Amino acid sequence: MAAATLLSCNDKNVLSALFDSEGIPSKITSSITEELPALPGILPSTLRELQDRETKAIKSLNAESPARQQIEDTIQELSAIIQSIPEYSSAWNNRAQAIRMIVGDDLTAPVAASSTIYLDLCQAIQLAAVTSNSSPRSSVSPLQRRILASAFTHRAHLLYKASKSIAQDPSKRISLQAELQGVDSDMLEKMATSDFRQGGNYGNEIAKQMAVKLNPYAKLCGEIVREAMINDMKESGVMPSHISL
């Protein structure tokens, strides 16, 4: 009988990445604690008022095709909320969502580059990730988790789309926001992958699926399987040997 092969830590990580059904690390980086303040630093009474204002502001966006003026009014009201309580992360996240309805989701487009969509999401993540002094660093409230899942996934989508756009036309890099200047398509995809993984960790199912799709080990495995299938078809005569895919 052959001696058992001991796997290195890296081998174990590779296998975990390939065969983990969620495509993300098995250890979730955050836990939900109901007893935590909904948003640290914001009093419950103030939070209720902010949520009421925010709900009214975004209500018109639930229509199938909201008018541009309705979207602009929503952005204006969310901006007013942010100005009154800058620590309210949900307003930053929803303002980015509303801006996207006007400027689209291509960060290399001038209209998007001149907007605050990317910075709004960065701010939403930074604020929502804050924990109370009495809680473990990895614990977040249900509201924090919802905001983080949404913001990470939205930012990941923007970064991923930008990576594809720049891969097709590298000259578009100059149109990116100042914070992303000098970042190439490969790095943008890595940033997107990291954000999708975080979004998945916080419970967004779409982010989990994208984390699987962009997993470098899974992509490598897919290429190996594809090549093996092609070779098998050529050997069996199903595919002519001179064809290259």
UniProtKB/TrEMBL annotation:
Q: Which InterPro entries match?
A: TTC36
User: Where does the source fall among the domains of life?
Assistant: Eukaryota
Q: Which GO terms describe its biological process?
A: tyrosine metabolic process
In the record, the note on similarity to other proteins reads: Belongs to the TTC36 family.
The protein's name in its UniProt record = Uncharacterized protein
What organism does this protein naturally occur in?
A: Coleophoma cylindrospora
